[in-house]
Design a protein that fits this description.
Blueprint: H1 3-21, H2 28-68, H3 74-112, H4 115-121, H5 126-164, H6 169-174, H7 182-208, H8 213-244
Helix pairs in contact: 1-5, 2-3, 2-5, 3-5, 3-7, 3-8, 5-7, 7-8
């Protein structure tokens, strides 16, 4: 299968899933269950990843701002970077690694065991029952995890600047929103919604079309993580340009 053919098949798959996602009926309970599972699996890794990055940003930024006597701007730097880029990207990477890989493995196993075929034989729409809830779950869970990660990143910056380096805590908090716009927060949510859709569609596509037994399921999981992360990192540039490119 050529890459152009594979891309075309993915496009058709994404269109079919998207149509089912915007038309009733929905598997509300399954969507809620998958959303909870992704959030529960990823919340600690997200915080454990973004918190230290916020610490490092604060540490490095403080050294630069000390040269110009502009330490008060440190929290503004941390908040803008965390809201716009760090938390959305890192949270999405972990969703792809945890949730996306799990969905690819589950659907791949169902395909290999012919459970999906059995569903279709019973005149049940397998995409609507098995795929749509998982895609919606990643779309919902990724922005939630981004918000949690953003709080963790800012807390990491505070920990380094105030507790380790002795900067005034009041100054850090007072200037936290000095350079941050509401669009920074909304932009991060928009980006992670798009990233979640990409992760869900790519994971479900590879799992749904898995072939070749257990080895095929393994390939589907590996391809999911690699392609999903690459796709949304590339998409991140264009989204950042569209959302923040005109901002000073």
């Amino acid at each position: 299968m050529t890459r152009v053919t594979a891309l075309g098949r993915f496009g058709i798959f994404a269109a079919r899933v998207s149509w089912r996602a915007v038309t009733p009926w929905w598997e509300v309970n399954e969507t809620a269950r998958h959303t909870w599972l992704i959030t529960a699996r990823c919340v600690l890794p997200v915080v454990a990843t973004v918190f230290p990055v916020g610490m490092v940003m604060s540490l490095q930024g403080l050294e630069i701002f000390d040269m110009f006597g502009a330490q008060r701007l440190l929290s503004s730097l941390v908040s803008v970077a965390v809201f716009r880029e760090i938390s959305p990207v890192l949270a999405s990477v972990l969703v792809a690694a945890q949730g996306g890989s799990a969905f690819a493995a589950e659907l791949g196993a169902m395909r290999i065991k012919e459970e999906i075929d059995a569903t279709e034989i019973m005149a049940i729409d397998s995409l609507r029952v098995h795929v749509v809830p998982r895609v919606l779950a990643t779309i919902i869970a990724t922005p939630i995890l981004n918000l949690i990660g953003s709080i963790g990143g800012i807390a990491g910056g505070y920990f380094t600047a105030v507790l380790l380096k002795g900067e005034p805590g009041g100054v850090y908090l007072a200037n936290l929103w000095a350079l941050t716009q509401p669009s920074d927060l909304y932009g991060g949510l928009v980006k992670t919604t798009v990233f979640g859709a990409l992760i869900g569609l790519i994971a479900c596509y590879h799992g749904y079309n898995a072939t070749g037994g257990a080895a095929g399921v393994g390939r589907a999981v590996n391809d999911t993580v690699v392609i999903a992360v690459t796709s949304f990192v590339v998409a991140n540039y264009f989204l950042t340009s569209a959302l923040f490119g005109a901002i000073g």
